[in-house]
Amino acid sequence: MSRRLGWFLAGGLLVALLLAGVVSNFASGSPDGLDATARQGCTFNADDEITGGTCMLQQEREHQLADSPLADYGIRGVGNDALSTGLSGVLGVLITFGLGAGLFWLVRRRPATEAGTAPEARTAATDPAATDPAAIDPAGAHSTTGTAARPGAATPGGHGTDAGA
To answer: Which residue in 33, 105, 115, 146 is a FRET match for 81, CA 20 to 30 A apart?
Structure first.
C-alpha cells in the first residue's frame, strides 16, 4: 500500500470516527420517514402510546436483538446517553472498517509466481530481464547478449564482430 493511500484511509477513518462519536449525538429525535409512515392512521396520547385508529405501528413487535449490548443506538450499561451513543457509533465504525479491511485483504491481488518462485526471488540466472531490462528485444524475446561477444557472432544489427570476416 502506498503512503498516500495510507494517509487517505487514515483520514477517512478519522472523519468517520468523529461523525459517529460526536455528530451522532445531534441527530434528530423526531420520527424518520419510515416511522412517520407507520404512524399514519393512529392517534397518540402525550406519552406517545396508541389510543385509537388503525396503522402499521400496531403490528410492531419487540426486536429480536433488543437485549443486545448495542441495541437502540447505545451501549447497555453506560449511564450517560450522549457517551453511550458516541461510543456505540465509534464501535460500529471500527467493526465495519475491520470487516471491510479483512475482506479486501482476502480478495487482494497477489503477485504471479513462476514455478513456485516469488517474483522478488527472481535472479539473472532464472530471468535475465530481472536485472537487465535491455536484455529483452522489442519483439519481447530474449536477445543473444551472451553470444554477441564471441568472435564472428552476429550482433543485434546482423553484422559479425570480426572486422576481417
So the answer is: 33
Find the DSSP H helices in 42-111: 81-106
The answer to whether residues 21 and 89 touch, using CB atoms and an 8 Å cutoff, is yes
Helix ranges, 31-76 (H): 33-39
The three grid cell numbers given for residue 100, joined into one nine-digit string: 471491510
Nearest to 16 by CA among 98, 75, 102, 92: 92
Say if residues 17 and 90 touch (Cβ distance below 8 Å). yes
Distance in angstroms (rounded) separating the CA atoms of residues 128 and 4: 33
- Indicate the average pLDDT of the chain: 78
Residue type, 146: G
Per-residue confidence (pLDDT) for residue 36, from 0 to 100 = 86
Nearest Cα neighbor of 26 from 92, 81, 91 is 81
143 vs 57 pLDDT, higher one: 57
Domain boundaries, the chain: 3-106
Cell of 12: 477517512
Instruction: Give the angle subtended at the CA of 124 by the CAs of 123 and 128, to the nearest 5°.
Output: 125
Backbone angles phi, psi at 51, to 5 degrees: -110, -10
Q: Give the SS3 label for residue 143.
A: coil
How far is it, in rounded angstroms, from Cα 27 to Cα 37? 19
